[in-house]
Amino acid sequence: YQRRVRGSFPSTQNMSTKPKLLYFPTRGRAEIIRLTLAAAGVDYEEEPVTPEKLEQLKQNGTAAFGQVPLYQEGDLILAQSVAIVRYIARTHNLHGKDEKESAIIDMILDGNVDLRSKVIPLIYPKVNAEGLEKLGVETIPTWARYFEKILVKNNGGKGWAVGEKFSVADVALFLLVEGLRDLGFGSIISSEAPHLLGHYERVAAVPSIAAYVKSEKRFPPVKVEKTK
Amino acid sequence: VSTQSTGQEMSTKPTIIYFRKRGRAEIIRLTLAGAGEDWEEEPILDGKKIRQLRQEAPFGQVPIYIDNDLYLSQPYAIARYVARKYKLYGKDDHEAAVVDMILEGHVDINDKISVLLQPYKNKDGLEKFGKETAPVWASYFEKILAKNNGGKGWMVGDKLSLADISIFLLVEVYEGLGFGEVANYAPLLSGLKERVAAVPSIAAYLKSEKRPCIVDF
């Protein structure tokens, strides 16, 4: 549990009561946090982190694992994007109505992380177009079907991912589909996971999400050149 | 409680479906043990069964956890569910967030370690890891622990939580893989491991036949 870290932020910023997100000026691991904050209606500050600033955060121990994103809310300084997302979700009624729903939401969040871990090495530090194409042969269709199956189990896939209310699981699935489409896998989603695609459109229409998605604040996606 | 066609009563105990090894299920088992709750094990003993489960399970993964009508995969989601149910998740949202942060850190280091064990044991890689990376990551958790009651109690707050259970496993894995003397470079974590092992319901589990012998990370 990290108490207020002396000297890590300018004194004027201690006057701010807005929570603060620290990350590189890119979507990356922070994007799910940003969308969850938007869905939760939280007004927050974004502090872009340079390599020098990251070194500083590592040295002074603010970054618990020497990494960003970090989320500061009062005395609480959290690391680990999924931990941050869970915290925001839980404190803003975006984590299911009971333990069972929370468990399924957590399962979806973890599945999302699993798939991301297969994709990320093919995008950072640079795009591996050949590797991505290979991923599209079996992995992406298989995983699209996994999410489709989970979605369809809930109200035939015509509503939200879990239960009857919008939750952070819906945010995760939205970003998943958006990300896969940006990488050129849109046709796979259409054919293997039509309900997932419908769900994506449903989430895109949620006013707070729509507003964030088209805002100037939002960083651009990773550019992927198509090989064909 | 309902009856099956065989006339036998269905257990209300939760069930873990997994191989007869610690692996990805051990965090679930230890959390149940920490909660003092009993469970059933349904071991996967043949290829046919694992193929069938991969068709049925969310994300085609095991372990699977069944608790009445709840059917879950993803070991950390399951462990969180158990922890939440039995109050091993901190006393409030702030503490829960720190528990989550520690868990995610644990997942990160586990991922780095498993790359060195699958598909084969990379001895050179493990040796390098043990000298360079393992102590650095241990220091992250050591610092978090030190900030809570001087590191003489639990990882988060004043009670045992899922965070302590994950650190117990981490230290046990470190020791099993020969990453030096944890007591030397992370004395507080080492002390915490002993404290967790001494919790009566956990101590009982650790020496029971229920605990698989095969680690198979």
Write the layout of secondary structure elements.
The complex is a heterodimer of chains A (228) and B (217).
Chain A: E1 20-23, H1 31-40, E2 45-48, H2 51-59, E3 70-73, E4 76-79, H3 81-91, H4 99-119, H5 129-135, H6 139-152, H7 168-182, H8 186-192, H9 194-204, H10 207-213
Parallel strand pairs in A: 1-2
Antiparallel strand pairs in A: 1-3, 3-4
Chain B: E1 15-18, H1 26-35, E2 40-43, H2 47-56, E3 64-67, E4 70-72, H3 75-85, H4 93-115, H5 123-131, H6 133-146, H7 162-176, H8 182-185, H9 187-197, H10 200-206
Parallel strand pairs in B: 1-2
Antiparallel strand pairs in B: 1-3, 3-4
Characterization of this structure:
The complex is a heterodimer of chains A (228) and B (217). With 228 residues, chain A is α+β, with helices and mostly antiparallel strands. Chain A has helices at 31-40, 51-59, 81-91, 99-119, 129-135, 139-152, 168-182, 186-192, 194-204, 207-213; strands at residues 20-23, 45-48, 70-73, 76-79. Chain A is globular, with a radius of gyration of 18 Å. Residues 4-14 of chain A have low confidence and may be disordered. With 217 residues, chain B is an alpha+beta fold. Helix content of chain B is 53%, strand content 7%. Chain B has helices spanning 26-35, 47-56, 75-85, 93-115, 123-131, 133-146, 162-176, 182-185, 187-197, 200-206; strands at residues 15-18, 40-43, 64-67, 70-72. Chain B starts with 14 loop residues before the first strand and ends in an 11-residue tail after the last helix. Residues 1-5 of chain B have low confidence and may be disordered. The A-B interface holds A 1-3, 61, 64-66, 76, 78-84, 86-87, 90-91, 99-100, 102-104, 106-107, 109-111, 114, 117, 142-143, 146, 149-150 and B 58-60, 70, 72-74, 76-78, 80-81, 84-85, 93-98, 100-101, 103-105, 108, 111, 137, 140, 143-144, 147-148, 156-157.
Please give a quick description of this structure.
The complex is a heterodimer of chains A (228) and B (217). Chain A has 228 residues and is an alpha+beta fold. Helix content of chain A is 49%, strand content 7%.
